[in-house]
Write a structure and sequence with these properties.
- The chain has a domain at about 1-100 and about 285-340: Rossmann fold (3-Layer(aba) Sandwich), CATH 3.40.50.300.
- β10, α11 (about 300-305) and β11 form a beta-alpha-beta unit.
- The chain has helices at about 30-40, 90-95, 110-115, 115-130, 135-155, 160-200, 220-225, 225-230, 255, 260-280, 300-305; strands at about 15-20, 60-65, 70-75, 80-85, 85-90, 100-105, 205-210, 245-250, 250, 285-290, 315-320, 330-335, 340.
- It starts with 16 loop residues before the first strand and ends with a strand.
- Helices cover about 45% and strands about 20% of the residues.
Length: about 350
């Protein structure tokens, strides 16, 4: 690959657990990010593909043998070039349709519980796009219509006919997004509850509730919010404002959960996501675990390792191996833009 700080890097990853160890800012996370982009055309670190281009390079590239197929992603001035077994993919949807599944677990996951709603929406959408290719299409069209509508709302004399046209697009694609997210939340409830119990060794009751901004009737919500939107110059209801409420023993975990409880819930959300993806009937998801073991106490570290599916491929980054109690994983040392196996 030619990606961020790596001008050229070639790795053979085992089917089990690989651990990338090294100091900060050496490129450990970049390895996991490149895998995420190769498999899902998604970066957990940025929305902009251009930010993944190495300084001074014309673009980036990542390629690999994935689930019996050779996949390649290149990005340059003309945009992405996607290939499967050497043949161009017709679209990003075609590229993703037969690809693998991923679960990303990172140090920022604590914000899933106590942070702003954007992180929880991204969490839901990343899972939904892997389960249903149509979700990505609806999300892209909703975002484009939302951007155009907000520009119109900022004008001194908004074009009401054009606003109405974009409102229809937001309703059409927004209702599809909300339906998929709501279904996903319902399906996540059981595996998240089970994962939380496994990691916490407790019996706390976890509840997940999808909360649409403006209520369940999106068309009515736009009608009711019309005056407020004109005053504020932006779209104030819709899936881009929806949220996921996480409750612990009947109370909002963001407000009443301790840091330890919130950290456990964040792990449970990702483990629940992995369990749900694993039931999809496709390949088992790969777990990309970025520098979280140093933040967990021994009980949670051990519980997490036990909760991860034994047969799943796991790529883990860390600054220290002090937490590793059992031999077995393949160890890679990362330093100065190079990666070497021990």
């Amino acid at each position: 690959m030619d990606f961020r700080c790596f001008e050229a890097l070639s790795l053979e990853l085992p089917a089990g657990t690989s651990i990338f160890v090294g100091g900060n800012a050496q490129g450990k996370t970049t390895v996991l990010e490149a895998v995420c982009v190769l498999v899902r055309l998604h970066s957990p670190r940025t929305h902009r593909m251009g930010q993944m281009v190495r300084f001074g390079a014309a673009g980036f590239g990542a390629a690999g043998d994935c689930w019996g197929e050779e996949r390649r992603v290149r990005y340059g001035a003309k945009g992405p070039d996607l290939r499967i077994d050497g043949r161009p993919a017709g679209s990003q949807g075609d590229y993703l349709a037969g690809g693998g599944l991923l679960v990303w677990m990172g140090s920022d996951d604590l914000r899933l519980v106590g942070g702003p709603g954007e992180g929880r929406r991204r969490f839901l959408d990343f899972a939904a796009m892997q389960l249903d290719a149509g979700h990505r299409r609806h999300l892209g069209r909703y975002r484009r219509a939302l951007k155009a509508r907000n520009l119109l709302l900022k004008e001194r004399r908004p074009d009401e006919a054009h606003i109405a046209a974009y409102t229809e697009m937001l309703v059409t694609h927004g209702e599809a997004l909300q339906k998929a997210r709501r279904s996903l939340v319902e399906r996540l409830a059981e595996p998240v509850q089970r994962a939380n119990a496994a990691v916490s060794r407790g019996r706390e009751a976890v509840e997940l509730e999808y909360r649409p901004a403006g209520g369940r009737d999106l068309r009515a919500a736009f009608s009711e919010a019309a005056g407020r939107e004109r005053r504020q110059g932006q779209t104030v209801v819709g899936p881009h404002r929806d949220d996921l409420l996480i409750k612990l023993n009947g109370r909002a975990a963001a407000d009443f959960g301790s840091e330890g409880q919130q950290r456990t819930l964040a792990l449970a959300l990702k483990l629940g996501q992995g369990a749900l993806l694993g039931r999809s009937g496709r390949v088992s998801p790969v777990y990309l675990i970025d520098d979280i073991f140093g933040e967990l106490d021994p009980q949670r570290r051990n519980a997490l390792m036990e909760a991860l599916p034994a047969g799943a491929q796991k790529l883990i980054t860390t600054t220290s191996l002090a937490w590793l109690e059992r031999p077995g994983p393949t160890i890679f040392r990362v330093a100065g833009g190079s990666v070497g196996a021990e």
